[in-house]
Amino acid sequence: MIQGSCHCGAVRFDYQRTAETAASCNCSICRRLGATWIYANADQITFHMAEGATHRYLRGEENIGFHSCTTCGCPTHWENMAEPETGPMAVNLNLCDPEEAAKVPVRRFDGADSWSFID
Ligand SMILES: [Zn+2]
Q1: How confident is the model at residue 84 (pLDDT cuts 50, 70, 90)?
Q2: Domain of 12: which CATH number?
Q3: Helix (H) or strand (E) holding 31
Q4: CA of 68 to the centre of ligand 1 (A)
Q5: How far is the CA of 3 from the centre of ligand 1 (A)?
Q6: What is the spatial distance between Cα 42 and Cα 83, in angstroms, rounded to a whole number?
């Protein structure tokens, strides 16, 4: 398990699996957010936060909701709007303890074009 927290602490999460790889994605939203994503299914991630602690941004097609803390602005996670309970989800590895995060290899994901890893 790896735990994460936004800067102000309003949003915390437990990522309940071993993160074997993380993705730095170059798509139009991820490159702007600057997040490093570790993936799981939604039921493998537990959030500790109050109602309304995050702001959700729906990108163009509205199938993925990108969340950031309403207080400190840190990008926290994204969710699949069609399957928010069990579908694919990712949390931002940059919010985790740096020593733990350093153990996870980061790969470059070409979400802008080929939809595959490019390293
Ligand atoms: Zn915060």
Answers
A1: confident
A2: 2.170.150.70
A3: helix 30-33
A4: 8
A5: 15
A6: 8
